[in-house]
Amino acid sequence: MIEAIIIDDEPKAIELLENYCNRSSVILCIKSFRNPIEALQFIEQKTPQVIFLDINMPKLSGTQLAKLIPSNSHIIFTTAYPEYAVESYNLNATDYLLKPITYQRFFKAVDKVSIALKKETELKNKSTKPTIIVKSGYEKYQISIDDILYLEKDGNYMVYHTLKKKILARETVSAALERLPETFIQTHKSFIVSTTHIEVLKSKHVHIKGVKIPVSHRYKVNLEQKLS
Fold first, then answer.
1. Strand partners, 28
2. Global confidence as pTM
3. S-S: 4 plus which of 50, 55, 93, 99, CB 3.0-4.6 Å?
4. Could you tell me if 187 and 213 are in contact, meaning their C-beta atoms sit under 8 angstroms apart?
5. Cα separations in angstroms, 116 against 2, 8, 149, 158
């Protein structure tokens, strides 16, 4: 549920947006304000995800207030004056609602915020995933640990089999194991696997994405203990 606040000096305008929020299943109005100064104090404490912000208000205009609001709050301007549209976009507003506001237009703005929040979450999750750098010839690849399926020794080289590609690196098995997390384990003198990607464990091999990877007697007990 998206948490929102409403800032408008007109009670009827607040009432309309509150009703619209109540009709929606994706957004919740947690507070409404007629005084922008009081609203700013609340924002500094709570940082709501969405702020419905009127532009023409006494004491502090919506555009002035927008400059004081943290960037992680999405601003949707609400006003009866279309001439403020350009200025609102210069302030990185997510949307601009022209009064009188219909529910359909309100819902479209909320949907825009919902998409933006989803993208922000995906980007945040992606940026926090652990990665390693693999040197292949003159090139270096940054690979997400979660994307590595297994490693296969090929002569003096190690082949990184990932969800997207294969990367060849001049590396020993011991060197690869040393920099990989504990979710990786050696199953054979030439193979290291990600235990998170193992689909089936059999007596002499494991399955990862339909590929049979050998499990030698030397490493089988350690692998079974790890999976248990």
1. 3
2. 0.60
3. 50
4. yes
5. 12, 24, 31, 40
